[in-house]
Structures are given as C-alpha cells and as structure tokens.
Design brief:
The complex is a heterodimer. Chain A is an all-alpha fold. Chain A contains ten helices and two strands, in the order ααββαααααααα. The longest helix of chain B has 35 residues, at 57-91. Classes of the chains: A mainly alpha, B mainly alpha. Chains A and B meet through helix 2 and helix 7 of A and helix 2, helix 3 and helix 8 of B.
C-alpha cells in the first residue's frame, strides 16, 4: 500500500504534463518502426532471433523490436529521472522516509511505476501497430505488455542504482540518455538479430534485460513458450536483483 | 545607430570564446552528444547493411554514412542553438549581463550562431573521420566533405536559433527536438524517398536535412553538379534563417 502511494504520486506528476511527456514516447517509436520496417521489408528475408527459433517477416521483426525497446527505455528513463529529482535534486526522499514509508517502499514504488509505464506504452503502441503484426495479434498484446512492463521495471531498477551511487550532478542523466540508451535501443535485437554484432557484444547484450525482453516479446507472438519462459526468467532475475540492490542503495544513501 | 542594432563580428567572437571556455568544463556533455550518430552508424555498418544488401554491405554504409555525418553536424548545431541558448537566455539570464557590456543584442545572436556552427563542424568532422576509415573514402572527398560540414552546421544553427527565438517555455523544446527526430528519420537519411509515395516525397523535399544529406553524399562521390545545387539550397536557407534569427533575437532581447 505504501509503495502504491509512490506510483500514485508519479502518476499525478505525469498527469500535469501528459502531452509533453507522452507525445515523444508515442511518436518516436511509431516513426522509427515505420521507417525501418519500410526500409527493408521488400528486400529482406524472414529473420530469427536464434537458430531454430521463430522467424518473422522483417516488418514484423522491427515493429515488435522497436515497440518493446522504446517502451522499456521510455519507462525506465522516466522512473530514473524521478529518482534523481527525489534523491539528488529536491531531497524529497529524505522527507518521505520520515513518514511510515521505508526506502524499500520508495524503491518498490518507483520500480512498479516504471513497469506500469512500460506496459501501458507498449500496449498502446502494439494496438496502433496491429495491422503490421501477425494475424490474431491483439490476443497477445496483454501478454506482450506484461513482458515489456517487467523488462522496464528491471532496467529502471538497475539504472536507479547507477543514479543513487552517482555524485548528484545532472550529468548522470545525460550519460544515461546519450551513452547508455542509444546502444541499448538499437542493438538489443531491435532492428536486427544479436548474431549480427561481434561475439563479445553479443554475449554482453544477450545477458541484459532489454534484449531478453525484446526476444521474449517476439517469441510470445509466435507462441514459442519455452523461449518466452527462458527470456522472461532472465528478466525476472534482473528485476529481483535490481530492486533489492536499489532498496539497499537507497537505504544506505538516506542513512548517510 | 543604437547599440542594439550594431553588429560587430569581433565582439561576437568574444561570446564564442566565452562559450568555448565555459564548455571546456562541461566536456562530458559535449562528448556524449557525439554518441548517438556513431551508434546509428554502427547499426548501419553491423546490421542494416547486411540485411539490405548481403552481397555488398558497404554499399548501404556509403549511402547512409554521409547522411549520418550531416545529422551529426545538425545535432551539434541544434543542441547548442536551442537548449543551450534557451538556458543562457531564459534560465541563466546571461544575456542581461552581456547587454551591459559593449556587445549588442545582434552580436549575441551572431556569436551564438558562430558557436553553434563550430560545434556542429566539430561533430560532423568526428563522424567524417570514422566514415573515411570505414568506407575508405578518397582524400579529396574527405576534404570536400570537411568543407561542406560548416555550411550544414551553419544552416541548422540558424534554424535552431530562429526556433528558440519563437518558443516560450522549456516544454516546447521537447516538441522541437521531436520535430528534428522526425526529420532525421524521414529526410532521405536511411531511405531514398524518391521511390516512395507523393506524401513521403513531399515531406522529404521540404526537409532541410534532405539537402544537407544530399550535399554530404555528393561530396563523398565528388559529384560537382549535385554538390553545387545542394550547397546553394543550404546556403540560401542558412542566410535567410540567420537574418531572421538575429533580427528576432535582437528584438526579443531589447524589448
């Protein structure tokens, strides 16, 4: 219940400026998906995320990849921005933990907010892009939104740990949005399979939550349940570890 | 002639020097802005080029690479002349202090325009260096491209400054950047829109980035007629936008 108050507060904050907050999050992935799906749909064969895995026409491959990765990143950045403002800029968290709310509640609230943001955004985008998806795709949208939401929450927790341990300079947000996010956005099995990148990058990316979330979302639309379970398992591992680490870091930072 | 109406490049250069000195301390922000076009270029080289043309992957890198160089120059100039100018003007109130010195409002506009152009030139040059290494561009083409980058950066610095003179709040900047992102994706950067429908062709034809990308491509293949045509468009837009930007900024700063 206490953690849910954080979700409500974040929801109210975005409600005051929903047009400027949500327009880029909706328009950017739509344009990105349209351009890249149109770019090679005529020349590319079907693509697969792994040997023996489900294959997709390029347009579907890109639409699913871009929607999942964009929603994950938009949701995680929003949550991390709120953590930065609450902890480093406005010292709001210092006040919050003098109430019955604990650092764990604050961490859980932000992670839950990120998950809800990512799930909602991906759900809306997938419904808009249904004509580009496989037949009967609407039935899979809630499942895909859930997978994307879990991935968003996992990434938000990990990035929040990075922010909590930073010096407090706004440069940390700059580093996240300009250095960490672009490679995650483009190389997490978004526009092409992980096998296209050098093996060291392949290994690193395939361990991260965004690539696993993207591949799981795509596998879900093909009904490849063992693949979905394997990749969601990795995402859940990140989510649990990231949230625990975030709560511990926040607790330490607020006691210091 | 009032101080606000005078234009002295030597005084404007003082503002360029001030901005450069200040940004030396914020070098991380300058460097991180380079990453995005580099990542897109890596995506083109590693992935998209193989999907589009498995027989000659370098062909697509040669198509998209010069356009990404133009995008790099655009990003540098636009970030400087929108976010940073807005911050100096509205948040930091720097220009109120600057107007107490011998600099006029027009000098401030010119100084910011020059600094935005230099920043865009730097970003474009870094991208050009990478492009030259990956696609084995000839030295003459590299030289041509290096000289074309400041024209591209000037155009976008002027457009950025014009836009920032029109906006009223920080939130509107988000829509400005969304507009530039849409232009980035639809202005012949990754796809040649000439084969698309009339709507997409028209959209691409009115985007300034289309001409900047074509200029960069013409330089990379040393196509002089295309170079002259696109350079002319870029310079005309740059001159017109510079005049509008400096006049509007001067009026706003002195009103």
């Amino acid at each position: 219940v206490d953690a849910w108050r954080v979700v409500e507060a974040n929801g109210r904050a975005i409600g005051r400026s929903w047009l400027t907050e949500l327009t880029p999050s909706l328009v950017q992935p739509l344009i990105l998906a349209a351009v890249f799906a149109g770019l090679v749909s005529s020349s590319a064969d079907h693509l697969s995320d792994g040997t023996g895995g489900p294959t997709f026409p390029y347009a579907q491959y890109v639409v699913l990849g871009v929607v999942c990765a964009s929603a994950v990143i938009a949701g995680a950045i929003d949550a991390v921005h709120l953590v930065f403002v609450g902890l480093k800029l406005g010292n709001k968290f210092t006040t919050v933990v003098t109430t019955p709310m604990s650092p764990l509640n604050v961490a859980l609230g932000h992670v839950a907010w990120a998950g809800i943001y990512g799930a909602t955004l991906s759900g809306v985008l997938l419904v808009i892009l249904t004509p580009f998806l496989p037949d009967g795709a609407l039935a899979f949208v809630p499942g895909a939104a859930l997978v994307t939401g879990l991935t968003t929450a996992a990434l938000a927790a990990v990035l929040a740990v990075f922010v909590i341990h930073s010096s407090g300079s706004p440069q940390v947000l700059n580093v996240i949005s300009r250095v960490i996010v672009p490679p995650l956005m483009l190389f997490s099995a978004t526009l092409f399979p992980l096998s296209f990148v050098p093996s060291w990058a392949h290994q690193a990316l395939s361990a991260l939550p965004v690539a696993n979330g993207t591949i799981a979302t795509r596998a879900l639309f093909a009904g490849a349940w063992p693949e979905v379970a394997a990749h969601v398992g990795i995402v859940l591992g990140w989510l649990v570890a990231g949230t625990a680490l975030m709560a511990w870091s926040l607790d330490r930072e607020l006691r210091a | 002639v009032t101080k606000q109406a005078s234009l002295d490049p030597h005084l404007a250069w003082q503002l360029v020097w001030r901005n450069a000195t200040y940004q030396r301390r914020a070098w991380a922000a300058v460097v991180t802005a380079l990453v995005e076009p580099l990542v897109y270029f890596a995506a083109v080289v590693l992935g998209l080029s193989q999907i589009i043309d498995a027989h000659d992957p370098a062909a697509y890198a040669r198509f998209a690479g010069p356009a990404l160089m133009a995008v790099s120059a655009m990003n540098g100039a636009v970030v400087e002349c929108t976010n940073n100018v807005y911050f100096r003007w509205k948040q930091g109130r720097l220009y109120d202090s600057v107007l107490c010195t011998p600099l006029s409002a027009a000098d401030i506009g010119l100084g910011d325009l020059m600094f935005g152009t230099l920043r865009g030139w730097f970003y474009g040059a870094v991208m050009l260096l990478l492009l030259a290494l990956v696609t084995a561009t000839s030295p003459l083409a590299v030289l041509c491209s290096f000289l074309a980058i400041p024209l591209i950066a000037w155009m976008f610095a002027a457009l950025g400054l014009t836009i920032v003179s029109m906006i009223g709040s920080w939130r509107q900047l988000q829509f400005v950047h969304l507009g530039f992102f849409v232009m980035f994706l639809t202005a012949n950067t990754f796809v040649d829109m000439s084969g698309s429908g009339v709507v997409l062709r028209t959209v691409a034809a009115v985007m300034p980035l289309t001409y900047a990308s074509e200029l960069a491509r013409a330089c990379s293949r040393l196509d002089t007629s295309s170079m002259a045509l696109n350079a002319m468009v870029v310079v005309v837009v740059a001159v017109a936008a510079s005049v509008v930007a400096i006049v509007r900024l001067s009026r706003k700063l002195t009103s």
